[in-house]
Structures are given as structure tokens and as C-alpha cells.
Amino acid sequence: KKGNRNNKKNPLANVGRALGGNRSFQGGGQSLGGTQPGRVFQVTFPHPGPLGMRIEKRANGEGSAIVSVVIEGSQAEAAGLQRGDILCYGGTNGEIEINYNQFLQLASSPDRP
Question: Domain residues of the chain, as ranges?
Fold first, then answer.
């Protein structure tokens, strides 16, 4: 399904609203799936507004954030994110994964990176 289901039951659809301003969200990623498994890359979301992706908890015992859906035409798609990408902290070369709950807090914080 294309588009952004923007409602209170989908907290990720509303993450961008809380981001506001001209700050960019930056972090790293590591691909488990998609076209380049194992690739580590840097991601920046330079625009306020919805990020255009759905994140789920990775079943690894630590609850890491993993991309489950990327919306066509979104910032996430423009950044090159794909289903199966694991979100990691920038500057860690993909070695420190972002916990799902930490990602939600970071993405919705006015002091986000």
C-alpha cells in the first residue's frame, strides 16, 4: 500500500510532526536484506515531516529497530533505506544497533541528532 497512514494508532506516521525545524535526523544502518545485505551506510533525513518508514522490533533479544516498510517517495526512500535495514548509531560502523524504543524517543525528540 502506498501513502502514509497518518493517525494516532500509527506512531511512526506522526514522528515527523514532532521533529519540526530544520534539524536533520542522522544515523547509520546495516542491511540484512534488500539488494546489498551487510552493507553499512550513513542516513540523513534533512527535512521536517514524516520519515516515511515503519519500524519494528527485531527478534534478536535486544529489540533493535529494523525497517519493515519504506513508503514510496518518502525521505526514507530518498535516503536509500530498504526493508530489512537495521538502524544503528552513527559513527559505530554498524556495530551498535538502536533499540526500537530508543529510536522512537530519538525520532520524536526536539533535540534529536
Answer: 11-108
- Positive or negative: CA dihedral 15, 16, 18, 24: positive
pLDDT value at 19 more than 90: no
The domain 11-108 is placed in CATH, from the list 2.60.40, 1.10.3470, 3.30.920, 2.30.42, at 2.30.42
In angstroms, rounded to a whole number, what is the distance separating the alpha carbons of residues 66 and 54?
9
Contact of 95 with 29, CB cutoff 8 Å:
no
Size of the chain, expressed as the number of residues it contains: 113
**86: which 3 cell numbers?**
537495521
Cα torsion angle, 76, 78, 79, 84, sign: positive
Alpha helices by DSSP H, 1-113? 15-19, 75-78, 100-108
Q: Over the stretch 35-76, which tens digit does the pLDDT of each residue have? A: 455 667 677 777 777 888 999 998 877 788 888 999 999 988
Q: What is the pTM of this model?
A: 0.62
